[in-house]
Amino acid sequence: xxxxxxxxxxxxxxxxxxxxxxxxxxxxxxxxxxxxxxxxxxxxxxxxxxxxxxxxxxxxxxxxxxxxxxxxxxxxxxxxxxxxxxxxxxxxxxxxxxxxxxxxxxxxxxxxxxxxxxxxxxxxxxxxxxxxxxxxxxxxxxxxxxxxxxxxxxxxxxxxxxxxxxxxxxxxxxxxxxxxxxxx
Length: 184
Fold this sequence. Notes:
It is built from 6 helices and 11 strands.
């Protein structure tokens, strides 16, 4: 089974984080939410409280196929400030393992130098922080092992792209149909 970790911090954008979890679990991925706050209860950017499955310090990420960073503020800032997470991201990048970030969170990848030779997208006010080869105005961009998403409105296409990368386009199409989503 494909193992996916979605990282949560106070101030994360609820739709971006939870849509990915929902869609990937429907597809059959073993998707686990991980708090970087030292406690399992996380407060989203719109005041929605969520219980993470695990604490960062308790997890061995050796089984991970994909790491996902939702955006939101100050969630993105809180994720970026976690040294363990940034170290894990650097390791995944070196090994060319799959990483995904949406909305403001691609700026974390930019600050780590992970987008320099890639096309990427982010929430418009964060595009200047991508430090990438080309900023693309699209809901979702996959370049190599890194996938970026533009914002909350792109949460479903972002999650479906990750489904396609993990399980193939046929599975992504099946999930899209099952949730009554049409990308046209």
